[in-house]
Design brief:
4-stranded mixed sheet, 168 residues, single chain
Length: 168
């Protein structure tokens, strides 16, 4: 049994800005707009995505969303169109991300949600090194955790315990 259509619902801080962005990104107007709410029904891919205006519930850095396209030509056409609309935040052609060789571009909505549009060429045995270090935000790999730096506090006799006092 398969699901006929996927549904995603995102909280947004400014519905008008989000509707403007997503109408441009999806290339179609919202299917429904009500106070504090907008919905798009996409046929290809089969997706229902709704936006609920609620700034307190917007959560940054949850990951990213994306669309895989079927051909290099479709990827190129979508990239050209997104460039013309001024919504491309990053382009990556022939990159190895998530252990796959891909051509892709990224766009970011008004609340910082990253969208990836990509064409999958083939599986790979490695990720580009920059994903492991400086720019993991634009790939599905977690960023390398920075090791905490230890700081040695200055000890002043006025606020330190006397040996044998039992305070430490």
């Amino acid at each position: 049994m398969s699901f006929p259509r996927m549904h995603v619902s995102l909280y947004v801080s400014n519905l008008a800005a989000s509707v403007n962005f997503y109408s441009t990104f999806f290339g179609q107007p919202a299917t429904k707009i009500k106070p504090g709410y907008a919905k798009y029904v996409l046929d290809s891919p089969s997706l229902i995505i709704s936006f609920i205006e609620n700034p307190e519930r917007v959560q940054a850095n949850f990951g990213h969303l994306g669309f895989q396209v079927e051909t290099v030509e479709e990827m190129t056409n979508r990239l050209v169109q997104a460039r013309a609309q001024g919504i491309v935040s990053k382009e990556e052609i022939g990159t190895s991300c998530c252990y796959a060789v891909q051509d892709k571009f990224w766009t970011t909505d008004p609340d910082g949600v990253q969208w990836e549009v990509y064409y999958f060429h083939e599986d790979a045995e490695f990720n580009d090194p920059h994903y492991a270090a400086q720019d993991a935000s634009a790939c599905c790999m977690p960023p390398v955790a920075e090791k905490p730096k230890l700081k040695i506090a200055e000890i002043q006799s006025a606020n330190s315990c006397a040996p044998g006092s039992g305070c430490c």
